[in-house]
Amino acid sequence: MLRDDYSALFIFIHVAQQRSFTRAAAWLRMSQPAVSYAVRDLEARLGVCLLIRSSRGVLPTKAGRRLLERIAPEFREIDEEIQALSELRAEPAGSIRITAIDYAIRSILWPKLATFLPQYPQIKVELINEYQSVDIVAHGYDAGVRFGQELAQDMISVRIGPDIRNMVVCAASFLAQGRRPETPADLTGLRCINLRTSTYGGLYQWEFSKGKQRINARVDGAVTFNNAYDILEAAKAGFGFAYLPEDLVRPYLLQGQLISVLEAWCPVWPGLHLYYPNRRYPSRAMTLLVDAVRYSG
């Protein structure tokens, strides 16, 4: 195979994993037309169609899936070997891509990375905010963040934060205009601020527990966001009840700007964990980053 074919295969892998020519082009730091041309040229030389566009994005054909399954692990091994060789450098270096929700990025990852990164100028970190559980290997991430310790196969998990309790809150002025809910069922018919996520295929259901009772409540309201911080601002502005991490709303509870309800129903969840592939040769940059964000209690 010609050298250009290897470059095209590398581009094809990223398009197939990202399910988007645009996202792959951004990751590869190429123009979108150049990425499209490389894939079309590869298909022409191989004589088969590898990718098709659909309402769900760019999807591999049967031939594309077969090729991706065969070559993606080989390219990953090459990358790992190059990473291993880079460890011979005196100064740790490398790029690390992490997917996490905005709350994890702002409250845990960034405060620690803001101290860590100046110590290692050759380490670069890309933080991607998304409310979606993804296959981090397939999507080209080095690590992800989620609650608890549930892992996919061949993943390592490291706790990066304390246990978390979500609370139902609203503006004091909003509660003064209506009734206080006593059970999750009372939220029906009351204005709430929704969170839209990709993982759950729509609106997030608020999770409650009390004793042996477990309730996932569907709520409704005038406004929906896809991140916690906009929900917080809407709650402070009096647009309804919100379901948010306790440490995020605590300052406003202490000030009296927000009021909490249904406290007896609000569960405590295992803290956030960083998870990443169990590779033979983890890069020194990755090892240092994991140590930097590890929760010490």
From TrEMBL:
A Gene Ontology molecular function term of the record: sequence-specific DNA binding
Alphabetic keyword roster: DNA-binding, Transcription, Transcription regulation
CDD domains linked to this entry: PBP2_CrgA_like_5
Pfam families referenced in this protein's UniProt entry, alphabetically: HTH_1, LysR_substrate
Superkingdom of the source species: Bacteria
Domain HTH lysR-type: 4-61
Transmembrane segments: none
InterPro entries named among the record's database cross-references: LysR-type_TF_proteobact-type, LysR_HTH_N, LysR_subst-bd, WH-like_DNA-bd_sf, WH_DNA-bd_sf
GO BP: DNA-templated transcription
Keyword NADP: no
Family in the record: Belongs to the LysR transcriptional regulatory family.
Name of the featured protein: LysR family transcriptional regulator
